[in-house]
Specification:
extended; 32 helices; Serine Threonine Protein Phosphatase 5, Tetratricopeptide repeat; mainly alpha; 612 residues; single chain
């Protein structure tokens, strides 16, 4: 799918002289006029429908108009443009369909070659269909009728650049500069083409010309510094950037300082890089949104590298002094604090952000996440109710979190009620324990909603697992896999639920668990939880050597596990697998370690005393 320029209805007066000389000619002329009038009637109905925002109806009227009179150029254009557009929104038109449609459209574009807007609409469609030669051809034709139109020249220069026709691109840029005057944008474009052409000397010369013309404008030396960095000349890049920095007034020059910071980063000088980023963020000529984006990127790099967090603290301190009442900055500060494990600071900052912008659903979600990290279920419920009172309707993510709260409180019926309400609200037509209806779901399924819906079905399945209703687990986990058959967490959990209780295991369920756990391992081979599930599948299949080999991969990293439930699960499984591999002394040791994590487990006590 793509975005098409708005198609304005084009109406032209056309005059046709009547044929003369014979009765047949007169009759033929009258018939043509009758058809044209009928076609014009449909055409004007299409104009009306489009003015009312009824695009589909307008398309049908333009189609009728063209079918009645295929020589009517305006109708041909409007019908053809839509015929070329609609298939692009689905699977894409065939080459033959494009060729036929182009002939229809060109009944108008050939009749009115100088009419700028419809020509550009047609050209843009061809560009979106990746028909670059045809796109360029139309632009060149239109330029012939409008030689001084700088917009056409600019489009042509970009098209030439994309098709690597560098000399033509340069000619078009020069023509643009002649019409509009040389400016920073045209300078960057021309130098970029020269670099692509391999003419680095020419590119530097293009920038030098503008530096001489505007000696107090720091934009041009900054761009020249960027060219030097591209050409792997960091010393020259730093020298020209320093020169640009000397031109700016105190408190300004953010772009210059960022360029110097980038040079330091390329040189691996983190101390000077931090200093210049800090200076840039304190300047007055960089808008807040840009600063926020810079800070976000900086923090992502910092957290990825697990670097010194005091560097991020310093940047936040400077920006918060500048913008103490920017909600988005407070929200970013809360996420940063959470990444450091400072949940009190995270909660404080997100509360401040909500005071500034209480209708931002993302901030409510962050606040809920911080509350859940403390396992404060009552506070979570109060926060959810408050968000509902203010927003009127909560997001799907909030519904997922509050449903999880009910599940953690073992209030399974309330959790299921929350999940059904979430389905009703966000995905009408879907019902708990029913195979999802893809036709009903389609209008509500987007890139942003598919993952939360998978999580929703997975959580519904989890609730039914706790309730001991395996059939309902299967329905909801199969729904989740229908949406994404490669989701590793779904694959693993479903596999484990099928074999968790020995009394519920069936040959069909064990075979399905085998398929699921193998797929989960294929997606995430190093995940300890998935390895444990795979080992337990092998165990239940009686493939004890394979089970031991897989489980030993888990035990190699058991020292990293801190959660008692996980320690219990791994050692308990390990002991059972060791026992079945006739390693009974080792099995008892593993069971004892499991018992340390859960001392009241009577089954383990029995195994330690008597084995299986």
């Amino acid at each position: 799918m793509f975005i098409l320029l708005p198609i304005l209805v084009i109406s032209f007066a056309s005059q046709y002289s009547a044929a003369r000389g014979t009765k047949g000619g007169i009759a033929q002329s009258v018939e043509k006029e009758r058809l044209r009038n009928k076609a014009r009637h449909y055409y004007l109905r299409g104009v009306e429908a489009e003015a009312e925002g009824k695009g589909d109806i307008a398309t049908e009227y333009y189609k009728y108009a063209y079918m009645v009179d295929t020589t009517y150029p305006e109708a041909a254009y409007q019908y053809g443009i839509r015929r070329l557009t609609l298939p692009v929104e689905s699977s894409g038109p065939s080459a033959d369909e494009i060729a036929r449609t182009r002939k229809i459209i060109e009944k108008f574009t050939d009749a009115y070659p100088a009419d700028l807007f419809p020509q550009l609409v047609y050209a843009r469609l061809l560009d979106q269909l990746q028909m670059s030669d045809a796109y360029i051809s139309i632009l060149e034709k239109v330029r012939g009728y409008h030689p001084t139109n700088s917009d056409i020249v600019q489009l042509l220069s970009n098209a030439y650049m994309d098709s690597r026709q560098y000399d033509k691109a340069l000619e078009a840029i020069d023509a643009y500069s002649l019409a509009e005057g040389e400016d920073y944008e045209s300078t960057v474009r021309k130098a970029t083409v020269q670099i692509a052409k391999g003419d680095s000397i020419g590119a530097l010369g293009t920038v030098d010309k503008m530096i001489l013309k505007y000696p107090r404008n720091p934009q041009y030396p900054v761009f020249k510094s960027q060219l030097y960095m591209y050409l792997n000349m960091p010393d020259s890049a730093m020298a020209i950037a320093r020169k640009a920095e000397s031109m700016v007034e105190p408190g300004t020059g953010g772009a210059v300082k960022l360029q110097i910071a980038d040079i330091y980063r390329e040189q691996g000088d983190s101390v000077n890089y931090d200093t210049k980023v800090y200076e840039a963020l304190l300047t007055e000529d960089i808008p807040f949104d840009t600063k926020n984006a810079i800070l976000t990127e900086y923090l992502q790099d910092l957290l990825t590298q697990d670097g010194d967090r005091t560097r991020g603290d310093r940047l936040f301190e400077g920006l918060l002094q500048q913008y103490p009442h920017e909600a988005s900055l407070r929200a970013l500060s809360s996420r940063y604090a959470a990444s450091k494990g400072d949940m009190d600071k995270a909660s404080e900052d997100i509360a401040y952000a909500l005071d500034l912008d209480s209708h931002n659903s993302d901030y409510w979600e962050l606040a809920m996440m911080y509350v859940l990290s403390d396992a404060d279920w009552d506070k979570a419920n109060a926060l959810y109710k408050k968000s509902l009172d203010i927003l009127g309707e909560t997001s799907l993510q909030m519904d997922l979190m509050i449903g999880n709260v009910a599940m953690m409180k073992d209030d399974y019926d309330s959790a299921l009620k929350i999940y059904q309400n979430a389905l009703d609200k966000h995905f009408p037509g879907q019902t708990l324990n029913k195979t999802l209806d893809l036709n009903a779901l389609a209008p509500y399924l987007t890139y942003d909603t598919i993952d939360p819906l998978i999580s929703l079905y997975r959580q519904i399945g989890d609730v039914y697992n706790f309730k001991g209703e395996l059939d309902n687990v299967k329905v909801n986990y199969e729904n989740a896999l229908m949406l994404n058959p490669y989701d590793a967490l779904t694959l693993n959990n479903y596999a484990y639920y099928l074999i968790k209780d020995e009394k519920d295991i069936t040959p069909e369920g064990l075979e399905r668990a085998d398929e699921l756990s193998k797929s989960a391992i294929d997606v995430a081979p190093d995940n300890l939880i998935y390895q444990d599930t795979r080992a337990w599948v092998y165990f239940n299949k009686g493939e004890y050597r394979d089970a031991l080999e897989m489980m030993e991969k888990v035990m190699e990293q058991i020292d990293k596990i801190t959660e008692p439930d996980e320690i219990y699960e791994y050692y308990s499984h390990y002991g059972d697998i060791l026992y079945k591999n006739d390693m009974k002394d080792e099995a008892v040791k593993a069971w004892k370690k499991a018992l340390d994590a859960k001392p009241d487990d009577t089954v383990l006590l029995k195994k330690i005393k008597h084995g299986f």
